[in-house]
Amino acid sequence: MEKGQIIEQVIQSVYMVISVENELDYNQSLLEIGLDSLKTMELIIQLETGFHFNFEDEELLISNFSTVNRIAELIDNKLNFKVI
Length: 84
Prior knowledge:
Elements: H1 3-17, H2 37-51, H3 68-79
Helix pairs in contact: 1-2, 1-3
């Protein structure tokens, strides 16, 4: 899967979990626009379902889910078996 496709799917998942009024900046902190611990878990479930994989426990760090770009990088690495 191409990185652009990953980003688009991540953005769709974010929009399903957080009410965002403006277009997302891919480097914008999701915490600043309403991502809390409960919504983070909802987002993780959305991502796992959408990409058909499960995150490993050591990947479930808030820093990995802080921005669209960070999430896309994590998923790209998982899908393409890159070591992060």
